[in-house]
């Protein structure tokens, strides 16, 4: 769209036009464009010709109502955006439909705006959607609102009529906590008080719409807010692990120690990654960047990085104000998907405090057994997520304080997180886990299958005693469990207490022990569980037998490799000492052989890698194999 | 942050969402300025890489230098290119340049159906397309993530809500999603960004010795150059800041009927 003065501008402001159906929103936009010289050449003539050919009166609204069905019915169905420019800045004008049926399109338009113009027909006065839209603008966090009392020409440009509507609507806005910046009397069809002062309303001394627009402020993310860097994806380009995402608030720089929630891990920013851009060791809110970490920890999409001094809340329940757009109501007892920043988690209604008709503020009464939020209703409620999520209160940090609800394939509702006395994050994850991972004995097998989202497999850890198998297995299990996977560890020591209690350590007994463990592991994998085994399992042939029990790709051999000297030095159970003293016969590495895997899927040099790094390597492998094999993890 | 950086960061966010959410993802590359800027933004998003194939729907009526330019960039930037052609229709000769179809029918078979064939053949579930809202009024109503049904049709009366960068990434089998990372850019923004980033653009956009340049690129028989003296990106920007002619004014197929373009788009055109 051209600039009238041809000067370069760098500031942009997005304005949504809302109000009740037929109160003249699209007409207003058409007129605004015409009066500011923003229409493309020939556009007006083209619209006039079309109207003439169709034998209908010319409508300014046809500029925005591009769809044939919109022109046929003279209503706006979907939101549209066009651009125009003043000397001050560029405006993106978002035209939103006023018909109640298309509320989801109105919300789509309004959610992207920084300011709003709300139109009220001077003749019809304040209507249902005048009120509902005012309420929703406030809920969506739009604080800059100008009310345009339109069609003043139909009311003889009456000052009294204007004041009557202003008084009535101002009272409504006050009751929902909104302070409008302007009330302006206009006539869109004739252009009164749009780009120039109306000769028909000499009593009006306030601004024109154009003057009011230029008094709105473009939103700037304030500096100095707490860092929120939700991880969008993890790339493995050029042999490096890059965490990609957009900084939603605050800033980060190389050397910052980041806390990742809900994974609850820390690492330090090693580099800030950009392509074809001036190198910089820092990044600020609004930037889509990548980072690498000094210590390789496993972090996936959904984790939110913050500084330890100012973390988000990390809980599975929160209070919210929600609007519902779905054809089906939002019901208690049904499971939905909640999306907040890059996190996705199953959730359900814990309790509904209040359902509100947003056009009257009246509480909608429901029978006791009918707990739901209906289409176009607004509710105050408490949601419960299946696992803890990282979030903020909307009033503090909007981008991590709002969410949408997905029902089946569609976004059906949205909401903002309300303040409450949420407990702050504690540092002890183990204590916290008691109240976080909840289960109820009414999950059906179909639900389990839907929820698994992955097939079972066997992660077979092999290596010398004290190489780190059990430590890694236990940590890996916790990690996978946190990632929502079904996982179980079969540990060597534990199995020998029961399943293998009749067996010794001769080659034959070892073979039988491994065979039994292999069979059990296979059953776990069949049941859909990721089964981690931690056995020395020194003989290659025995391990290959287990491999043969499982479908291709579902047996992952992990060689936990530390030099004998290192293992012997670690020796937490004093077994090597005993073996050297001949107190334990046939001890692997000392008096019995260990046959290292020829081509393990994964090798972990645990003399060089930390436990966290070892776990990250296994998780990495499973993700890389995501499409190649059937393991989806 | 200036407006170009804001636009860029938003597009990068959208591209990264698309790459995360769609296993079978492709990007349409028309060789024009918009999809070339989009390709550049993909390299921004994936740190120099383009981790999905590019699809060029070739009607065989493209201006010859477009194909040369395309093949040169494929080589220089290490791109994976899939060229789609509607061979049966081309073989039958039922095209506009042959006088056997209207312009809109020709777009329908060579471009829309040509695209449909590539999508089906490669089972793409996500297609990244470089359309912008300011180009044309039906595109002004688009979503960033816009579903198409089994027949590629766009149900424009019932589009998904899209708020706070939470996009429609769940979809029924058989349907696909069009992803529009440039939706919020204007023609002027695209050229300002080309200048800032020094993106190599096909020279057809610059005025030739006859004082003509293309403002929008399509098939040779249906795309007309405009009068212009702009021979550099800077001069194009200056020209756009003062023009009141619409960008697609040189595209003849839009003008066959009042809703020609809307019908094409509902049926699956880009």
Care to describe what's here?
The complex is a heterodimer of chains A (633) and B (270). Chain A is of the alpha/beta class. Chain A folds into 4 domains: 204 residues, Rossmann fold; 79 residues, Translation factors (Elongation Factor Tu (Ef-tu), domain 3, Beta Barrel); 103 residues, Elongation Factor Tu (Ef-tu), domain 3 (Beta Barrel), CATH 2.40.30; 178 residues, 3-Layer(aba) Sandwich (Rossmann fold), CATH 3.40.50. Helix content of chain A is 26%, strand content 27%. In chain A, the strands form 6 sheets. In chain A, strands 2-3-1-4-5-6 form a 6-stranded mixed sheet, sandwiched between helices. Chain A has a 6-stranded antiparallel barrel with strand order 7-8-13-11-10-14. In chain A, strands 15-20-18-17-21-22 form a 6-stranded antiparallel barrel. In chain A, a hairpin with a 4-residue loop joins strand 2 and strand 3. Helices cover 37% and strands 10% of the residues of chain B. Chain B is built from 8 helices and 8 strands; from the N terminus they run αβαβαβααβββαββαα. The longest helix of chain B has 20 residues. The chains are: A alpha/beta (633), B alpha/beta (270).
Distance between the termini of chain B: 31 Å
Indicate the low-confidence ranges of chain A by residue numbers.
1-6, 427-441, 624-633
Domain count of chain A, please report it: 4
Just name the CATH architecture of the largest domain in chain B: 3-Layer(aba) Sandwich
- Report the radius of gyration of chain A as a whole number of Å: 32 Å
Please identify the top-level CATH class of the largest domain in chain A.
Alpha Beta
Quick one: CATH superfamily of the largest domain in chain A? Answer: P-loop containing nucleotide triphosphate hydrolases
SSE order and pairing:
The complex is a heterodimer of chains A (633) and B (270).
Chain A: E1 12-19, H1 25-35, H2 43-54, H3 68-73, E2 80-85, E3 90-95, H4 103-111, E4 115-121, H5 128-139, E5 144-150, H6 159-175, E6 182-185, H7 209-215, E7 229-237, E8 240-246, E9 251-253, E10 257-261, E11 265-273, E12 282-284, E13 288-293, E14 304-307, E15 313-324, E16 330-331, E17 336-340, E18 343-356, E19 372-373, E20 378-391, E21 402-407, E22 410-417, H8 429-436, H9 445-452, E23 457-462, H10 469-482, E24 487-491, H11 492-497, H12 507-526, E25 530-534, H13 540-549, E26 555-561, H14 564-570, H15 575-580, E27 602-605, H16 611-624
Helix pairs in contact in A: 10-16, 12-13
Chain B: H1 3-21, E1 25-28, H2 33-45, E2 54-57, H3 64-77, E3 81-84, H4 87-92, H5 103-122, E4 126-128, E5 145-148, E6 176-179, H6 187-197, E7 212-213, E8 226-227, H7 233-242, H8 260-266
Parallel strand pairs in B: 1-2, 1-4, 2-3, 4-6
Antiparallel strand pairs in B: 5-6, 7-8
Helix pairs in contact in B: 1-2, 6-7
């Amino acid at each position: 769209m051209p600039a009238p003065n041809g000067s370069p501008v760098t500031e942009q402001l997005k304005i949504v036009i809302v109000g009740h159906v037929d109160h003249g929103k699209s007409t207003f936009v058409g007129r605004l464009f015409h009066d500011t010289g923003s229409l493309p050449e020939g556009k007006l003539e083209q619209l006039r010709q079309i109207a003439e050919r169709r034998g209908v009166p010319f409508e300014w609204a046809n500029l925005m109502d591009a769809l044939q069905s919109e022109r046929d019915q003279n209503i706006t169905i979907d939101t549209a955006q066009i651009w125009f420019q003043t000397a001050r800045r560029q405006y993106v004008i978002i035209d939103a439909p006023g018909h109640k049926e298309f509320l989801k399109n109105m919300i789509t338009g309004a959610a992207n705006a920084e300011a709003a113009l709300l139109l009220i027909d001077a003749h019809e006065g304040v209507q249902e959607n005048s009120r509902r839209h005012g309420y929703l603008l406030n809920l969506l966090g739009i604080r800059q609102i100008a009310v345009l009392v339109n069609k003043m020409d139909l009311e003889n440009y009456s000052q009294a009529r204007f004041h009557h509507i202003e008084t009535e609507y101002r009272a409504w806005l006050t009751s929902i906590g909104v302070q409008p910046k302007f009330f302006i009397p206009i006539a869109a069809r004739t252009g009164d008080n749009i780009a120039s002062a109306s000769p028909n309303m000499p009593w009006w001394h306030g601004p024109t719409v154009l003057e009011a627009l230029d008094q709105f402020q473009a939103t700037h993310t304030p500096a100095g807010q707490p860092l929120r860097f939700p991880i969008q994806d993890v790339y493995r380009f050029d042999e490096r692990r890059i965490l990609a995402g957009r900084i939603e608030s605050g800033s980060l720089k190389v050397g910052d120690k980041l806390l990742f929630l809900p994974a609850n891990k820390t690492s330090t920013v090693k580099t800030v990654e950009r392509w074809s851009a001036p190198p910089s060791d820092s990044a600020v809110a609004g930037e889509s960047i990548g980072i690498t970490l000094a210590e390789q920890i496993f972090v996936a999409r959904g984790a939110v990085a913050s500084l330890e001094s100012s973390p988000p809340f990390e809980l599975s329940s929160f209070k919210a104000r929600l609007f519902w757009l779905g054809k089906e109501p939002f019901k208690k007892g049904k499971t939905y998907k909640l999306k907040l920043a890059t996190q996705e988690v199953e959730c359900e209604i814990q309790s509904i405090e209040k359902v509100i008709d947003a056009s009257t503020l009246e509480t909608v009464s429901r029978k006791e057994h009918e707990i739901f939020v209906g289409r176009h209703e607004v509710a105050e409620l408490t949601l419960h997520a299946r696992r803890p999520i990282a979030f903020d209160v909307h009033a503090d940090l909007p981008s991590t304080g709002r969410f949408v609800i997905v029902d089946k394939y569609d976004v059906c509702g949205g909401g903002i997180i309300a303040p409450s006395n949420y407990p702050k994050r504690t540092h002890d994850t183990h204590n916290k886990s008691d109240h976080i991972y909840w289960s109820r004995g009414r999950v059906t097998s179909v639900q389990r299958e839907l929820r698994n989202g992955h097939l079972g497999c066997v992660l077979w850890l092999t290596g010398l005693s004290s190489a780190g198998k059990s430590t890694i297995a236990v940590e890996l299990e916790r990690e996978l469990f946190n990632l929502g996977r079904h996982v179980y560890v079969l540990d060597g020591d534990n199995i020998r207490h029961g399943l293998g209690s009749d067996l010794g350590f001769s080659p034959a007994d070892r073979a039988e022990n491994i065979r039994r463990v292999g069979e059990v592991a296979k059953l776990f994998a069949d049941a859909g569980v990721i089964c981690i085994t931690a056995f020395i399992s020194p003989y290659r042939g025995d391990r290959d037998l287990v491999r043969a029990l499982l479908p291709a790709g579902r047996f992952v051999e992990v060689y936990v490799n530390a030099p004998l000297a290192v293992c012997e030095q670690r020796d937490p159970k004093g077994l090597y000492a005993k073996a050297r003293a001949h107190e334990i016969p046939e001890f692997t590495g000392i008096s019995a052989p260990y046959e290292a895997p020829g081509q393990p899927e994964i090798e972990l040099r645990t003399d060089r890698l930390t436990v966290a790094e070892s776990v990250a390597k296994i998780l990495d492998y499973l993700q890389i194999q995501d499409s190649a094999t059937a393991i989806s993890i | 942050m200036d407006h170009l950086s804001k636009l860029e960061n938003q597009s990068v966010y959208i591209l990264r969402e698309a790459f995360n959410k769609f296993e079978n993802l492709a990007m349409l590359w028309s060789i024009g300025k918009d999809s070339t800027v989009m390709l550049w933004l993909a390299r921004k998003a994936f740190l120099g890489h383009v981790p999905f194939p590019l699809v060029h729907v070739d009607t065989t009526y493209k201006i010859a230098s477009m194909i040369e330019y395309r093949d040169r960039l494929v080589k220089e930037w290490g791109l994976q290119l899939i060229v789609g052609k509607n061979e049966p229709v081309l073989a039958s000769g039922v095209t506009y340049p042959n006088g056997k179809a209207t312009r809109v029918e020709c777009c329908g078979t060579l471009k829309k159906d040509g695209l449909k064939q590539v999508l089906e053949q490669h089972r793409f579930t996500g297609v990244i397309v470089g359309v912008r809202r300011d180009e044309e009024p039906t595109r002004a109503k688009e979503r960033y993530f816009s579903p198409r049904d089994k027949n590629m049709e766009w149900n424009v009366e019932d589009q998904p809500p899209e708020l706070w960068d939470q996009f429609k990434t769940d979809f029924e089998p058989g349907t696909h999603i069009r992803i529009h990372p440039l939706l919020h850019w204007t023609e002027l923004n695209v050229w300002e960004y080309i200048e800032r980033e020094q993106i190599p653009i096909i020279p057809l956009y610059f005025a030739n010795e006859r004082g003509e340049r293309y403002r929008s690129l399509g098939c040779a028989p249906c795309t007309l150059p405009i009068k212009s003296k702009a021979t550099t990106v800077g001069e194009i920007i200056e020209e756009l800041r003062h023009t009141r002619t619409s960008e697609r004014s040189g595209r003849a197929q839009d003008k066959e009927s009042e809703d020609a373009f809307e019908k094409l788009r509902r049926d699956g055109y880009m």
